[in-house]
Amino acid sequence: MSSKNGEITEADWRRFCDEHVTTAFPDGYTSMEAIGHWKGSGNMTERENSRVLLIVAPADAKEKVMTIAKKYCEMFEQEAVLVLTSMGEAIFVGNEQ
Question: How far apart are CA 55 and CA 4, in angstroms?
């Protein structure tokens, strides 16, 4: 949630999600606050506030996910965004009989 121009605000994040993530995945996704750690250019471990997007989608949605990651890098001048894909089974469980 840091950029060359300072912290990315909650309003910036919400606007990004509304314009790019929700548009690509209108059925939903989960956004979580996190603390990111990585080895920076000075070979020191860096730390910053982060966001994790959890998107459950079919395998053919990878291009949409990559487009969102690239857009985030572009809009907020990020060096990189981590994208992790995994095959699995997702089921909504409700109280319906």
Answer: 27
The 3-state secondary structure of the chain, one letter per residue: CEECCEECCHHHHHHHHHHHHHHHCCCCCEEEEEEEEEECCCCCEEEEEEEEEECCCCHHHHHHHHHHHHHHHHHHCCCCCCCCCCCCCCCCCCCCC
Whether the model pTM is above 0.70:
yes
What whole-number distance in Å separates Cα of residue 8 and Cα of residue 51? 11
pLDDT digits (tens, 9 = 90+) for 45-67: 989 999 999 999 998 999 999 99
User: Left (φ > 0), alpha (ψ -120 to 50) or beta: where does 56 sit?
Assistant: beta
The string of pLDDT tens digits covering residues 35-45 is: 999 887 788 99
Q: In the chain, what are the domain boundaries?
A: 2-76
Beta carbons of 33 and 46 less than 8 angstroms apart:
no
